[in-house]
Amino acid sequence: MAKSLAKSSYQCNICNKSLSSRSNLADHIRIHTREKPFRCNFCGKKFARKGEIPVHVRIHTGEKPYQCNICGQSFTRKDILTTHGRVHTGEKPYHCDICGKRFTRTGDLTVHVRVHTGEKPYKCNLCSKSFAKSTNLTDHKRIHTGEKPYQCDFCSKSFNQNNQLIKHRRIHTGEKPYHCNICDKSFARNDELTTHKHIHTGEKP
């Protein structure tokens, strides 16, 4: 039995990892060689494994074969559907070992842990400022480039961050989502609510 098992095992001569088939070994070796022989016919992007192509192509075709049976929303990948399902179930399987906070996605946990460690792996190559999240770096770089991709559909004013646009639009819509729990007065911005509360507490800002 052991001899038969040995024959069916294929070992990587770089890291000595054992794989169950010759094709799995070939896929694995590309991790070391970084070879990407499989190309997308739409955009030319290359992949190390042939099985990655059909999933990637859905970006171009718009195909979303995995549908949520609760809300009907569809997704390109099964793992994205699984993560989405936690919105409905409230399941948060990933927890922080430091503070116990729980998350639906492992990526959210990874970013959260940086609050405790202070790690900021995303560095701006123009001013060397660092960030915990890649999206924060993207937003920051627009300070240097002057790019303002978020445009108000009321007055056409543009902003370099989406949250700035959201705050600005409240000037037009009159939305005031921040409510005082003492007098029920509402405000468009959270900092305005904080300042207002000093009236009740007597605290000087």
UniProtKB/TrEMBL annotation:
<comment type="similarity">
    <text>Belongs to the krueppel C2H2-type zinc-finger protein family.</text>
</comment>
<dbReference type="GO" id="GO:0008270">
    <property type="term" value="F:zinc ion binding"/>
</dbReference>
<keyword id="KW-0677">Repeat</keyword>
<keyword id="KW-0804">Transcription</keyword>
<dbReference type="InterPro" id="IPR013087">
    <property type="entry name" value="Znf_C2H2_type"/>
</dbReference>
<dbReference type="GO" id="GO:0000981">
    <property type="term" value="F:DNA-binding transcription factor activity, RNA polymerase II-specific"/>
</dbReference>
<protein>
    <submittedName>
        <fullName>Zinc finger protein 2 homolog</fullName>
    </submittedName>
</protein>
<keyword id="KW-0539">Nucleus</keyword>
<keyword id="KW-0479">Metal-binding</keyword>
<dbReference type="GO" id="GO:0005634">
    <property type="term" value="C:nucleus"/>
</dbReference>
<keyword id="KW-0862">Zinc</keyword>
<keyword id="KW-0238">DNA-binding</keyword>
<dbReference type="GO" id="GO:0000978">
    <property type="term" value="F:RNA polymerase II cis-regulatory region sequence-specific DNA binding"/>
</dbReference>
<keyword id="KW-0863">Zinc-finger</keyword>
<keyword id="KW-0805">Transcription regulation</keyword>
<dbReference type="InterPro" id="IPR036236">
    <property type="entry name" value="Znf_C2H2_sf"/>
</dbReference>
<dbReference type="Pfam" id="PF13465">
    <property type="entry name" value="zf-H2C2_2"/>
</dbReference>
<dbReference type="Pfam" id="PF00096">
    <property type="entry name" value="zf-C2H2"/>
</dbReference>
